[in-house]
């Protein structure tokens, strides 16, 4: 039979585990929407610190940092500047939820909310996994051997520092363009078959032309753009900072190369039948 001391220890351990268990909420939104990331701190408590983080970005800054009765934007990750605010600036009844504005596909990930009450250490209150669906999607159906334009327009009006075209099932990029003058095909399948529709990318036109398409080109293509934050040229560009602008799925009709093949077969069979007819009759 379990002694009273062991029983007390087990109860305390179970209570601690239950107190520290935080379920992860899942939210799905469309890109361009605003989303509220919920976090409910202790009601009536003196909250002195609120930290919203995304673990994969924490080394580069917070999603939001509230301390000393104000928000510290200089400690915030650059991608969240001007887009995150407390739902209730007064945090009445312990409401430490935040509103993330104009969500993009790059905001996908897990967000964690830590709250510290005066005299205590920070405690994890809630975890939210955010899924983002991109609304700008297009499907194109082409014939093998054709040239096709994969259209992508960036209407934000800034200088384009980086352009990436990716295909979801390929590890290497289809096409990369840095500062508009260093463009290359990354994946060998697309060598010498992809070029910018407008080499100067005027008015944010970052569309590309894929030449002589083939069945193996079937797939979903994504257009990513990073705008320059300053006019100063930098030696390195962080590919992770590029934002998804447009998605295109490329499909093929039954005609094209397949139709030509069966056409040739029919012609050959016709000639054979004609020759046999002449021989017999």
UniProtKB/TrEMBL annotation:
<feature type="domain" description="Ig-like">
    <location>
        <begin position="122"/>
        <end position="238"/>
    </location>
</feature>
<keyword id="KW-0393">Immunoglobulin domain</keyword>
<dbReference type="InterPro" id="IPR036179">
    <property type="entry name" value="Ig-like_dom_sf"/>
</dbReference>
<dbReference type="InterPro" id="IPR013783">
    <property type="entry name" value="Ig-like_fold"/>
</dbReference>
<protein>
    <submittedName>
        <fullName>Junctional adhesion molecule-like</fullName>
    </submittedName>
</protein>
<dbReference type="InterPro" id="IPR050504">
    <property type="entry name" value="IgSF_BTN/MOG"/>
</dbReference>
<keyword id="KW-0732">Signal</keyword>
<keyword id="KW-1133">Transmembrane helix</keyword>
<dbReference type="InterPro" id="IPR013106">
    <property type="entry name" value="Ig_V-set"/>
</dbReference>
<dbReference type="GO" id="GO:0001817">
    <property type="term" value="P:regulation of cytokine production"/>
</dbReference>
<dbReference type="Pfam" id="PF07686">
    <property type="entry name" value="V-set"/>
</dbReference>
<dbReference type="GO" id="GO:0050852">
    <property type="term" value="P:T cell receptor signaling pathway"/>
</dbReference>
<feature type="transmembrane region" description="Helical">
    <location>
        <begin position="262"/>
        <end position="280"/>
    </location>
</feature>
<dbReference type="InterPro" id="IPR003599">
    <property type="entry name" value="Ig_sub"/>
</dbReference>
<keyword id="KW-0812">Transmembrane</keyword>
<feature type="domain" description="Ig-like">
    <location>
        <begin position="29"/>
        <end position="115"/>
    </location>
</feature>
<dbReference type="InterPro" id="IPR007110">
    <property type="entry name" value="Ig-like_dom"/>
</dbReference>
<keyword id="KW-0472">Membrane</keyword>
<feature type="signal peptide">
    <location>
        <begin position="1"/>
        <end position="23"/>
    </location>
</feature>
<dbReference type="GO" id="GO:0005102">
    <property type="term" value="F:signaling receptor binding"/>
</dbReference>
<dbReference type="InterPro" id="IPR003598">
    <property type="entry name" value="Ig_sub2"/>
</dbReference>
<dbReference type="GO" id="GO:0009897">
    <property type="term" value="C:external side of plasma membrane"/>
</dbReference>
């Amino acid at each position: 039979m379990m002694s009273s001391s062991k029983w007390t220890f087990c109860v305390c351990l179970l209570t601690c585990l239950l107190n520290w268990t935080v379920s992860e909420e899942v939210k799905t939104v469309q890109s361009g929407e605003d989303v509220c990331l919920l976090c409910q701190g202790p009601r009536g408590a003196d909250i002195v610190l609120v930290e919203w983080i995304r673990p994969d970005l924490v080394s580069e800054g917070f999603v939001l940092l509230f301390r000393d009765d104000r928000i510290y934007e200089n400690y915030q990750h650059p991608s969240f500047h001007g887009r995150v605010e407390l739902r209730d600036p007064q945090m009445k009844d312990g409401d430490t939820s935040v509103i993330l504005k104009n969500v993009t596909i790059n905001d996908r990930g897990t967000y964690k909310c830590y709250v510290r009450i005066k005299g205590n250490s920070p405690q994890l209150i809630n975890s939210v996994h955010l899924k983002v669906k991109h609304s700008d999607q297009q499907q194109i159906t082409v014939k093998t051997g054709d040239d096709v334009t994969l259209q992508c327009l960036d209407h934000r009006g800034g200088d384009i520092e980086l352009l990436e075209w990716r295909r979801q099932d390929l590890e290497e990029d289809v096409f990369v363009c840095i500062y508009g003058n260093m463009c290359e095909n990354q994946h060998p399948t697309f060598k010498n078959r992809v070029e910018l529709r407008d080499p100067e990318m005027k008015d944010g036109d970052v569309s590309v032309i894929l030449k002589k398409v083939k069945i193996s080109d079937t797939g979903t293509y994504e257009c990513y753009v990073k705008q320059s934050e300053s006019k100063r040229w930098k030696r390195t560009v962080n590919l992770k900072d590029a934002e998804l602008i447009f998605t295109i799925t490329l499909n093929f009709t039954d005609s094209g190369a397949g139709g030509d093949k069966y056409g040739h077969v029919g012609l050959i069979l016709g000639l054979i039948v004609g020759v046999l007819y002449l021989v017999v009759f």
